[in-house]
């Protein structure tokens, strides 16, 4: 193992990619800090975060404070050279950030100073960005505002969803971390302060934002839907029930369409009108039902919904 003690802080799958690379590169992980286990799904099964699963598989001590601001003292009893975070999910106290010998660093999935905050991948797609990326930054007591020492740009294609971009950025982030960490440890990294006037923010997606408004240009509607695939998943209302959209495409034709109107089964997708085109929903789910493909939906209740205008409010 490399003689560098790392405290790793992260929660979802993207953080697993970072921790896995650190383990592959033989760094000594003295502890993993992650969010508390939480109840998930209809059955409300208590589920551990993905990072915790990996840590336990490697016999790494796991810490799960409900509030890191109030429960960080025991972490400062550890021998920590570097603190690495990725999508941890809580603000880390300044005292802990300043404790490690070489400092504290965050792997953030945007090209900082753009899209600081908790949902940069969702927001990049939702706002129609052509590129996303990964930044490695020194952590300070302000959200994603520290100096940046490495960045890697990643193209966002028209076919990308939040899920596919997430996977791309996980791989790029792990590679960039592996390349950058030795420079940090050897004091060879060059840090550039962010330009505050260029900062934008990617706040977490609200429940209200999961609802799709079809009274927009088709590109905007499509971006909204694919930005929330596979989760939290966009929806609209059909007869007061949620209709979720799990897979979608876009057709721009500059023909007149009734916004929100179900036009039928076109090219094996349920076509819904928007300004300047329509979206094709390939997988969808009516509230209380299982997810299904478009043709099965059409052969069920879908054919009776042709001409129906779905609602952006209940």
Automatic annotation (TrEMBL):
Quote any Pfam family the record assigns: Formyl_trans_N
Single GO term (MF): methionyl-tRNA formyltransferase activity
Q: Which UniProt keywords apply?
A: Protein biosynthesis, Transferase
What's a single GO CC term here?
Answer: cytosol
The record, for InterPro entries, names: Fmt, Formyl_trans_C, Formyl_transf_N, Formyl_transf_N_sf, Formyl_transferase-like_C_sf, Met-tRNA-FMT_C, Met-tRNA-FMT_N
The Formyl transferase N-terminal domain covers 3-180
Q: What is its EC number?
A: 2.1.2.9
* First-tier enzyme category under EC: transferase
Where's the Formyl transferase C-terminal domain? 204-301
Which chemical reaction does it catalyze?
Answer: L-methionyl-tRNA(fMet) + (6R)-10-formyltetrahydrofolate = N-formyl-L-methionyl-tRNA(fMet) + (6S)-5,6,7,8-tetrahydrofolate + H(+)
The record's section on Gene3D superfamilies has: 3.40.50.12230
Q: What is the role of this chain?
A: Attaches a formyl group to the free amino group of methionyl-tRNA(fMet). The formyl group appears to play a dual role in the initiator identity of N-formylmethionyl-tRNA by promoting its recognition by IF2 and preventing the misappropriation of this tRNA by the elongation apparatus.
The similarity comment for this entry is: Belongs to the Fmt family.
Q: What is this protein called?
A: Methionyl-tRNA formyltransferase
According to its UniProt entry, this protein's organism is: Amedibacillus dolichus
The beginning of the lineage is: Bacteria, Bacillati, Bacillota, Erysipelotrichia, Erysipelotrichales
């Amino acid at each position: 193992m490399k003689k560098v003690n790392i405290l790793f802080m992260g929660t979802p799958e993207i953080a697993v990619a970072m921790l896995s690379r650190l383990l592959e590169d033989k760094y000594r992980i003295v502890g993993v800090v992650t969010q508390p286990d939480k109840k998930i799904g209809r059955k409300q099964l208590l589920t551990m975060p993905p990072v915790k699963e990996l840590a336990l598989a490697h016999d790494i001590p796991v810490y799960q404070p409900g509030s890191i601001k109030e429960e960080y003292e025991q972490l400062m009893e550890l021998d920590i050279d570097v603190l690495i975070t990725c999508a941890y999910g809580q603000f880390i106290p300044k005292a802990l950030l300043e404790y490690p010998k070489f400092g504290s660093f965050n792997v953030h999935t945007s090209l900082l100073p753009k899209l600081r905050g908790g949902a940069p991948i969702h927001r990049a797609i939702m706002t129609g960005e052509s590129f996303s990326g990964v930044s490695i930054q020194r952590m300070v007591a302000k959200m994603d505002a520290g100096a940046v020492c490495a960045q890697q740009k990643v193209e966002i294609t028209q076919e990308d969803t939040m899920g596919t971009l997430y996977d791309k950025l996980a791989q790029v982030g792990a590679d960039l971390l592996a390349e950058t960490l030795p420079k940090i440890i050897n004091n060879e990294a060059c840090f550039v302060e962010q330009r505050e006037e260029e900062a934008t923010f990617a706040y977490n997606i609200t429940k209200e934002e999961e609802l799709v408004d079809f009274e927009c240009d088709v590109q905007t509607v499509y971006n909204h839907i694919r930005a929330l695939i596979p989760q939290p998943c966009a929806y609209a209302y059909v007869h007061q029930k949620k209709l979720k959209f799990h897979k979608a495409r876009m057709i721009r034709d500059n023909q007149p369409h009734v916004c929100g109107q179900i036009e039928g089964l076109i090219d094996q997708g349920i076509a819904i009108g928007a300004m300047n085109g329509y979206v094709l929903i390939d997988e969808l789910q009516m509230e209380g039902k299982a997810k299904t493909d478009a043709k099965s939906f059409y052969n069920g209740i879908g054919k009776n919904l042709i001409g129906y205008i779905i609602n952006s409010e209940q």
